[in-house]
Amino acid sequence: MMRLQFILISVLQFEALISGPIIYKRPGEDAALPCAIASSEPACPLLSWLYSREPSQAPSRVESGNVSVPAARLSVDTTCSLVIKSVTAEDAGLYTCRQEGRVSEDVYLNVLAISPSPPDADPKRDGEVTLECTLWRHSRLRPCRRDGLNWLDETRTLLRREGPGHHVLGQRQCVSSLTVKRQSGHNRRYTCQFVDSRGVTIEAEYTPDFTGGTASDAGSTGWSPLSCVMLALRIGGLILMIAITVVVIRIRWNKKPLDDDNINDDDDDGQYENVEAPRAAVRLP
After folding, report:
1. pTM score > 0.70 for this model?
2. Which H or E run includes 251?
3. Sign of the CA dihedral 256, 257, 262, 265?
4. Cβ neighbours for 139, distance < 8 A, ≥ 6 positions apart
5. What is the pLDDT of residue 51?
6. How far apart (Å, rounded) are the C-alpha atoms in residues 64 and 97?
């Protein structure tokens, strides 16, 4: 009992150190991190934005809306918010704005991403792939709770430890792994949810590309567009050859009875001449 009380007190003290908004994003989305000490354009050039990924890392500095690396994705808007275009996992961390000795509350950017493991895994070759769902965040935040990352299939059904075509490998801190196998001729979509005490906070989707496959399992995979076109051309050519053959046979078959009638008529004429000749010979004196 004393140990449980100690853990609860430690967690509460730890959470008390965390202040400021926590923003959740997926890779590719845009994020706007607010600055609480300034919100008007004239004050923005006087701001400094600080960023750190880990407590031991020296913070990077953003001055007067000019960002050194990478300049194409970072900017400061008219409300003095730090705007990050097309967020990546590397952008996750702690952000703080500062102005003439005044420091704003911290802003935490968390990024939920799904990626194949290893990164060069080829579902077409292997027939299966392991997906990793990771919540990238600053280490000052408390660890993800157990079963805080859940997997769902395309029917929104919660995936358990093991089932048809999938195997949930478990969760390590803020990383959950799922192995999926080729099940049918179409690619299935999988969803990873991050759940905290308030419920589902954010989710991300991923569709493994099993199209193509190997020769051994080609029968259970979908056809590529090029394969479908080639198959259609072959079938069309075969049908055309069959049609031409049928037409030629019918033409020849229709001509054959006419030739037989001509032959029969010639035979009848010859018989008539043979019969009439003796009658002419009898009438002579």
Report:
1. no
2. helix 225-282
3. positive
4. 54, 55
5. 87
6. 11
